[in-house]
Specification:
The protein has 104 residues and is mostly helical. The protein has one domain (2-100). The protein contains 3 helices and no strands. The longest helix is centred in the middle third of the chain and has 40 residues, at 27-66. The termini are far apart.
Length: 104
C-alpha cells in the first residue's frame, strides 16, 4: 500500500509538471536530454551505492578479523547510506558535466 501511494504521488506530480511546463517547439529534445541525464544519474547512484556497500562490508570484515569486536553487517542497512550515495552520485555527475561545459 505504501509503495503504491508513493508511485501515485510521483505519477501525479510528474504529470502536473509536464502540464505546467507546456509544450513548445523543441521541447521533445529537451525532455529527451532530461531523461538521459536522469538515467545517467541513476546509474551513477547505483554504482556509488554498490561501492559504498562493498567498502562497508570490507571494513566490517577487517574489523572482525583484526579485533575481538563483532560488528554486524546490518549496520549498513540504513537509509542514510542510500542518501549519502545519492549525494556522491550528484557530485560525480556535476564534476563530469562541469568539465564538459565552459564556465559561465
Amino acid at each position: 500500500m505504501n509503495a503504491g501511494f508513493i508511485v501515485a504521488v510521483l505519477a501525479v506530480s510528474s504529470v502536473l509538471v509536464w502540464a505546467l511546463t507546456g509544450r513548445r517547439r523543441g521541447d521533445q529534445a529537451r525532455w529527451r536530454a532530461a531523461g538521459l541525464a536522469l538515467c545517467e544519474f541513476a546509474g551513477l547512484w547505483a554504482l556509488a551505492l554498490i561501492v559504498d556497500v562493498v567498502v562497508g562490508v570490507a571494513v566490517i570484515l577487517s574489523v572482525r578479523a583484526a579485533t575481538s569486536f563483532f560488528v554486524s553487517v546490518y549496520v549498513l542497512n540504513d537509509v542514510s547510506l542510500a542518501i549519502a550515495s545519492a549525494l556522491q552520485a550528484f557530485v560525480l555527475y556535476w564534476r563530469r558535466h562541469s568539465a564538459l561545459t565552459p564556465a559561465a
